[in-house]
Amino acid sequence: MTKDIKSYYQTLGVSVDASMEEVKHAYRDLAKVWHPDRFTHDPALQKKAEAKLTDINIAYDAINAYFKENAAKKESKLKPDNAGSEKFTNATYKTEKPFSTTEKETKTAQTDNTERFNKQKTIKEKPQRPASRPVPDEGVPYSTVPRPWMRFWARYFDLIVIGVIMFFTMRIFSPELTKKVNPLVLIGVTLPLWFIFEAVVMSTFGTTPGKSILRIRVRRLDGTIPNFNVFFKRGMFIWFMGEAVGIPGLFFLSNFMSYLILLKSKKTTWDERLDLVVSHGRVNDNRVGFFVFLFVLMIILFTLYIAGFNLEFKKNLTQKTPAVIPSEQRTETVVEPSPLPLTPSRSGEEMLTADDWFERGRRLFLDKKYQESIDAVSKAIELNPEYTEAYINRGSSYKKLGKNQQAIDDYNKAIELNPQLPVAYFYRGFYYYDIGKIPQSVDDLDKAIALNPRYAMAYLFRGLAYKQIHSISQAIEDFDTAIELDPQDPKAFYSRAVAHSATGNDLQAMNDFKTAARLGSQEARDFLKKQGVQW
Description:
This protein is mostly helical. It is 66% helix and 2% strand.
């Protein structure tokens, strides 16, 4: 094979061992792209297109003649292939005149090439791929005709693959994180990771899973693969201009606008700015079916991971002690669980220890059997008169039954036994808050926070106490701290939303109401439902 014939293959963008059908396909695509009738608005571009189309026609005629020559020499009885009958001219595009300035050049080149090939001896050497070609998929003819939907599905296939990889990695290396982080947050993290993933994979391998299957490639104008920085910039452009940072509403609008621009200009805004060319190879039915199969499989895996994480997250939330935030009028209280582990039951009551009776009383309290809880915890106190947590638990049961004096006596006893116990001050402060003694409540909550500066619930209820005496700014500061310490507490977000609403900061209030609703606050959901707002 001569050097000249190799250059003709390069002109059409196909490999030297491409079949005549592949040559035809590449020729048709290039002829459509470079036909001068498409550039009537710009005489300079039209002139350039005429020259380009001339080169394309010469290359096609030369390769066609080369195929005929080889076919004739291999099997003299067979007639020459008529593959050259599909040559593109202006008539294909319904123009009245052929290119008078280039027709002569084309015919001359055709004649020269035919004569040269007729004089050559039979070529027996095995075709070699040109070493200068920089792309790995050179054997597949590619076209720059835009295919927006191919690009769309390839992008979202890659996005789901990233999500599956991230969730699988978290499941293996950090299973505890899945119990503490809301799945919605994980999905939000997946989106910006997409363009980083694409930049790494594209700059390393020249393609991504989705683009490889659908035969989409992104190259520089000279055909080389861009580096990481270029792909990273491209991903940033897509994330902000094409995806609108995932903002609902704007997301669909930005995708639609990008679609229209691609159809009109044949290039997206980001590819135009970065001087990149996106081209497409032929995709047969088998490849499309394989892509659909993998896409559905990835969606199923992604959905299963999200469902599993959501189940674990909700289960983890339910394991925390519920404490119902009051509406603006009053608060229901539930005693905090004892730090002691559950103790197995024993066969006879006479063999139960103080811890056994305390655990029984705690269970009865959670079942709202307050008198029975008092009886059980009283037996724990009989066995251990210095059982501080038992006095706190019994005080909460007395409070539920409206026996306020017995309740305050038990809280006082707990503080007397252990004046360094933050939870004792918290529950007495909680009690004072519930009966409307706000100054005493704030004083006890101050002590609880001083003993444990990371006591999120103490900040929360001190904020509620401040709100009762109209110290809204101080209340918001405490709510901020409570959220910082426990960002998964819907009660803190709901309480801060009410405080912001009281100050007229409706935007921040609405954001907090939505967050509280997403985290499970029924009060927030009811409020948003009345307002007709989706959370």
